[in-house]
C-alpha cells in the first residue's frame, strides 16, 4: 500500500482539498496568470501548495472573516462558471478556478459552512475547559455577592463563630426564634 502524501501536518482537520487554479497577485504582460495549486481547507486556514506532494505551502491565510462566492466575471473563457473568490474587508482577496462548475460550488459551500460554524456561538472543544472555569468562577462570585447581600439585609442571621455565652467546645447552630437549652 502506497501512503498518500499529507502536506498539512494535522491532516485530521482537512475539510476539503484538491487542485484549483489560483490567480496570481501581479498580472503579467499578457494579462492575469492562473497557476495550478494544490489547495487545502482546514478548520481555521486555507493553504495552497505548488503540488500535492509539496511539504511547504506557497501561501496560507486564516479563513475566518472571509466570504466565499461564485464569480463568473473573473474569466472570459469557457471556465468562467468554475470561478470563485474569497473576500475579506481590509485583506487580500483570492481568486480560484475549479475543475468544474459543480466543484466550484462545492468549494464555496464548504467554505460558507465552515465560516457559519466559526461565527456561531458554539464554543470550540479546545477552549471549552477554560471558558467553563471562567463561568464557574463568575457563578461563584455571583453566589458570594448574593449571599453577602442576603446577610446584610437579614439581621436575624447568627454569625458563624460561636457567641461567647456558649459553654465548652460544643458548637451548634441556633436558628432564629429558638432559645438554646440551658443546662
TrEMBL record:
Encoding gene per record: Skap1
All copies of domain PH, residue ranges: 13-116
Keyword Cell membrane: yes
Keyword Cytoplasm in annotation: yes
Protein name as annotated: SKAP1 protein
GO cellular component terms attached to this protein's record: cytoplasm; nucleus; plasma membrane
Annotated localization: Cell membrane; Cytoplasm; Nucleus
Spans annotated as Disordered: 124-183
Signal peptide: none
Ranges of biased composition (kind: Acidic residues): 125-139, 162-172
Top-level taxon: Eukaryota
Record InterPro entries: PH-like_dom_sf (IPR011993), PH_domain (IPR001849), SKAP_fam (IPR037781)
UniProt keywords, alphabetically: Cell membrane, Cytoplasm, Membrane, Nucleus, Phosphoprotein
Pfam families: PH
Amino acid at each position: 500500500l502506497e501512503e498518500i502524501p499529507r502536506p498539512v501536518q494535522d491532516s485530521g482537520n482537512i475539510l476539503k482539498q484538491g487542485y484549483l487554479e489560483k490567480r496570481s497577485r501581479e498580472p503579467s504582460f499578457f494579462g492575469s496568470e492562473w497557476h495550478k495549486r494544490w489547495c487545502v481547507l482546514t478548520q481555521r486556514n486555507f493553504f495552497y501548495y505548488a503540488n500535492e506532494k509539496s511539504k511547504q505551502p506557497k501561501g496560507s491565510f486564516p479563513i475566518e472573516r472571509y466570504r466565499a462566492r461564485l464569480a463568473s466575471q473573473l474569466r472570459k473563457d469557457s471556465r468562467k462558471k468554475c470561478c470563485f473568490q474569497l473576500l475579506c474587508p481590509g485583506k487580500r482577496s483570492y481568486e480560484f478556478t475549479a475543475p468544474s462548475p459543480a466543484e466550484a460550488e462545492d468549494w464555496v459551500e464548504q467554505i460558507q459552512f465552515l465560516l457559519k460554524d466559526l461565527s456561531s456561538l458554539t464554543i470550540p472543544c479546545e477552549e471549552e475547559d477554560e471558558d467553563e472555569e471562567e463561568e464557574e468562577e463568575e457563578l461563584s462570585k455571583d453566589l458570594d455577592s448574593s449571599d453577602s447581600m442576603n446577610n446584610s439585609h437579614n439581621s436575624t442571621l447568627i454569625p458563624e463563630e460561636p457567641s461567647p455565652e456558649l459553654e465548652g467546645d460544643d458548637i451548634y447552630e441556633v436558628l432564629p426564634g429558638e432559645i438554646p437549652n440551658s443546662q
